Amino acid sequence: MEETPTQRLATLLLEQPVTDWIADKRGAGLSWRVIARELHTNTEGAVDVTAETLRGWTHTGHAA
Known about the structure:
By secondary structure, this protein is mainly alpha-helical. The chain has helices at residues 5-14, 18-27, 32-42, 51-57.
């Protein structure tokens, strides 16, 4: 599946694939909601998405 513009922006600002960044956070035991908040913070407010959006970005909703 092709990345959305928001995913591309997140990847650019995080300097790593956003899906890998999400997987690292899930692996650390963080909730989807906390990850969404951290994404917003780590991108200086440029990327503001819901926990549901993040689950969709991982394709399975269970990024490990």
